[in-house]
Amino acid sequence: MPLAVRTSQFWNLGASFKDGLPFQPWAAELHRQRVASNSKDNPDAHCLPLGVMQLHTHGQPRKMVQTPGVIVIIYEANAGLRQIFTDGRPLPKDAEPWWFGYSTGKWEGDTLVVESTSFRDLGWLDVEGSPLTDTGRIIERFRRPDFGHLEIEVTIDDPKAYTKPWTVTVYQRIMLDTDLIEFICQENSKDDPHLR
Amino acid sequence: MTELRSLATFALLTVSASAQWLNYPTAGVPKTASGSANLTAPTPRTADGKPDLSGLWGMMCPTANGTVMCAPEVAVPQVFGDIGRGVKGGLPYTPWAADLVKTRKAQNGKDDPTSHCLPGGVAKLHTSALLRKIVQTPGLIVFLTERNASYRQVFTDGRPLPKDPNPSWNGYSTGHWDGDTLVVETNGFQEGQWLDRAGSPLTESAKMTERIRRPNYGTLEIELTVDDPKAYTKPWTLQLSQSIILNTELLDYICLENEKDSSHLV
Question: Domains of chain A (ranges plus CATH)?
Answer without folding.
Answer: 3-176 (2.40.128)
